[in-house]
Amino acid sequence: MTNKRHNAGILGTGYYVPEKRITNRDIEKMVDTNDAWIVERTGIRERRAAEPGTPVSEIACKAAEMAIEDAGVRAEDLDLIIFATLTPDYYIPSTACVLQMRLGAAKAAAFDLEAACSGFVYASAIAAQFIENGIYKHILVVGAEVLSNMVDWEDRNTCILFGDGAGAAVYGAVPEGEGILAFDLGADGTGGDTLIVPAGGSAQPTTEESIKARQHFMQMDGKAVFRFAVKVMGKTVLDALEKIGMDKSEIDHLIPHQANIRIVQAAAKRLDMPMDKVFVNLDKYGNTSAASIPIAIAEAQREHRFKKGDVIALAGFGAGLTWASCILRWTKEDK
Ligand SMILES: CC(C)(COP(=O)(O)OP(=O)(O)OC[C@H]1O[C@@H](n2cnc3c(N)ncnc32)[C@H](O)[C@@H]1OP(=O)(O)O)[C@@H](O)C(=O)NCCC(=O)NCCS
Questions:
Q1: Where are the domains of the chain?
Q2: Quick one: fold of 7-177?
């Protein structure tokens, strides 16, 4: 039983990546690794890094302004801001509130959402509820990260993978049959320790010892995350498709979370999709967590990849463990 009054769709997109590039060769100087290994095992060639001390709200604001302009609305028109991030400006206030101030979106309610790399799709599913039931007209969903602060630049397991960036979308009502058609969200908390920042929260407050032990940086069991990702990425898309009786052959574009090319290829194989239907930019940006999917959507749009009416599948997975997918029919004219 649903009380759907409208369909919710993307009215505008935006993205921003910091200018500073960190290439695999740069990382060779920091840890025992090499360009050939990183490219072969991950597909990543370089990633972006914000200047030290850059708050994530600053890069998010640039992406948000682009999305607001693309949507043809004003910041004052926003009813709600949902900010997906695992690298917030502060514990309090929420980064969504900081962004609301930066944008001058005085009317907007605002909150943060933490579902790691699945965050943008989780946030989009929430935004869709408010649009569909007619409570809100314009919702800004942002996924943005400054992961360069959270990565241990002495740990070759993780520092090769991540990058900084911001992506945003404005959601609003769209004609019936367009916009978000289905989504699938999931979590498995039993896998929480496979990707974790152990210290700094209430479970293990920051102490001198925790800092010395480098426990306020990300720690990862790469193989376990890899196995999980390969299992879940294609499946979540199939589960979303099943809810609307759609077949995988009807998907025109897959926008996967940009973690590792081998994970992306495995998802494409599960969905019988040729790689030319799969958008990949992880070679340039690495894994930007919650920012990865909205950056990819915004970039693909600007590369004129989407035609009005195309069916797009978004698919993410991440710490938590979490996964999320969304099937949407593109509603914008290609300009
Ligand atoms: C991290 C990841 C790239 C490692 O790739 P892998 O193929 O699993 O590599 P392994 O850990 O099996 O290591 C293979 C070998 O390379 C070595 N190695 C590990 N990291 C290395 C690095 N950065 N550079 C060079 N060699 C490295 C290992 O020591 C190992 O050597 P050995 O065979 O002599 O023991 C991969 O597991 C991965 O991408 N996992 C998912 C991570 C992810 O997406 N996280 C974010 C989720 S949102």
A1: 7-177, 181-329
A2: Peroxisomal Thiolase; Chain A, domain 1 (3.40.47)
CATH class of residue range 181-329? alpha beta
Q: Is 257 annotated in the active site? A: yes
Instruction: Enumerate residues lining ligand 1, CB below 6 A.
Output: 33, 37, 41-42, 117, 156-157, 160-161, 195, 220, 222-223, 225-226, 229, 259-260, 287, 318
Is residue 159 among the annotated active site residues?
A: no
* Side chain identity, residue 68: I
Report CA(156)–ligand 1 centroid distance (Å).
8
35-94 pLDDT, tens digit each: 999 999 999 999 999 999 999 999 999 999 999 999 999 999 999 999 999 999 999 999
Q: Which residue has the tokens 């009054």?
A: 5
Cβ count within 10 A of residue 227: 13
Q: Does residue 331 have a pLDDT over 70?
A: yes
Listing DSSP states for 138-153 in one string gives -EEEEEEE-GGGTS-T
Decide whether 7-177 matches 181-329 in CATH topology: yes
How many whole angstroms from 232 Cα to the centroid of ligand 1?
Answer: 19
CA distances to 102, 121, 201, 243 from 74, in Å:
13, 23, 37, 35
The b/e string for 91-109 (b: 16+ C-beta within 10 A; e otherwise) is: eeebbbbbbbebbebeebb
* Distance from Cα 32 to the centre of ligand 1, integer Å: 12
Q: Which residues contact 186 (CB under 8 A, 6 or more apart)?
A: 232, 236, 322, 323, 324
pLDDT in tens, 176-192: 999 999 999 999 999 99
Using left for φ > 0, alpha for ψ between -120 and 50, and beta otherwise, residue 93 falls in beta
Helix (H) or strand (E) run with residue 301 in it: helix 292-302
pLDDT(156) > 90: yes
Probe target for ligand 1 pocket from 145, 221, 226, 230, with the most ligand atoms within 8 Å of CB: 226
Q: Annotated catalytic, 287?
A: yes
